[in-house]
C-alpha cells in the first residue's frame, strides 16, 4: 500500500476514535473516572491526528520523514456551541465505522442526520427528504464525492456540499456546490465550525 493510502486509512480510523470519544464524553458526568478516560482517549487521538496532518504535509512536499517529537500539549476542549443546531444533514461515507462516528458527532451538535453508504444511496435520500447540507466523503467506489456533488446540484440546486477527505484541500475542479473541504481526521470542533460556515 502506498503512503497516501496508509494516511487515508489512518485518518478514517482516527475520525472513528474521535467520534466515539466525543460520544462517551457526552454520556458521562464531567470529572467521573469514565469521563477522564474518554477525555484521555480523545486527547491521544487528537495528538495522533496532528501528527498525521504533519506527515501528510511532509509527503506532499516530498520531504524526508519528519523527526520524532514529544507529546504536543493539547488545547482545552471547547464546549459545543449550537447556533446552527437543527439542520437537516445528509452524511455519505462508504465506511460504516466512519459514517456512524461522524453521524453521532453531528447528532451531539443537535442536527438531524440522515446517512447513506454510497453516492447513489445519497441521491435517493436527497430525493426522499429535505436536506440543508450534504457532507460526503471524497473517495468512494462507483461515485466519488465530486460526482455526487454535481448530481446533487442538479437534483437540489442551492444545497451546499461539504467534502470530507483524507488529503486535505487537495481537490481540483471543485463544482460550485462544494462549499468547503474538511480534512480527516475530523473532530467535533471541526464539524461544528464547518457546518456553521456552510450555514452562514
How is the topology of this model organized?
Elements: H1 3-27, H2 33-61, E1 88-92, H3 96-108, E2 112-116, H4 119-128, E3 133-137, H5 145-155, E4 161-165, E5 178-183, H6 188-199
Parallel strand pairs: 1-2, 1-3, 3-4, 4-5
Helix pairs in contact: 1-2, 1-3, 4-5
Provide an overview of this structure:
Helix 1 (3-27) packs antiparallel against helix 2 and helix 4 (119-128) runs parallel beside helix 5 (145-155). This protein folds into two domains: 3-61; 88-199, Response regulator (Rossmann fold, 3-Layer(aba) Sandwich). Helices cover 50% and strands 13% of the residues. The model is unreliable at 69-82 (pLDDT under 50). It has 200 residues and is α/β, with parallel strands linked by helices. It is globular, with a radius of gyration of 17 Å.
Short précis:
With 200 residues, the protein is α/β, with parallel strands linked by helices.
| Structural classification | alpha/beta
What separation lies between the terminal Cα atoms?
40 Å
**Main beta sheet:** 5 strands, parallel
User: What helical percentage do the residues reach?
Assistant: 40-55%
- By DSSP (H or I, 4+ residues per run), the number of helices equals 6
CATH class of the largest domain: Alpha Beta
The domain tally reads: 2
Radius of gyration: 17 Å
What is the CATH topology assignment of the largest domain? Rossmann fold
> Secondary-structure element sequence?
HHEHEHEHEEH
Instruction: Tell how many strands the DSSP assignment holds.
Output: 5
**CATH homologous superfamily annotation of the largest domain:** Response regulator
Q: Tell me the β content.
A: 5-15%
Q: How much is the average pLDDT?
A: 82
**Coarse shape:** globular
Assembly type of the shown chains? single chain
**Poorly predicted spans:** 69-82
Output the strand order for the largest sheet.
2-1-3-4-5
Second-tier CATH architecture of the largest domain:
3-Layer(aba) Sandwich
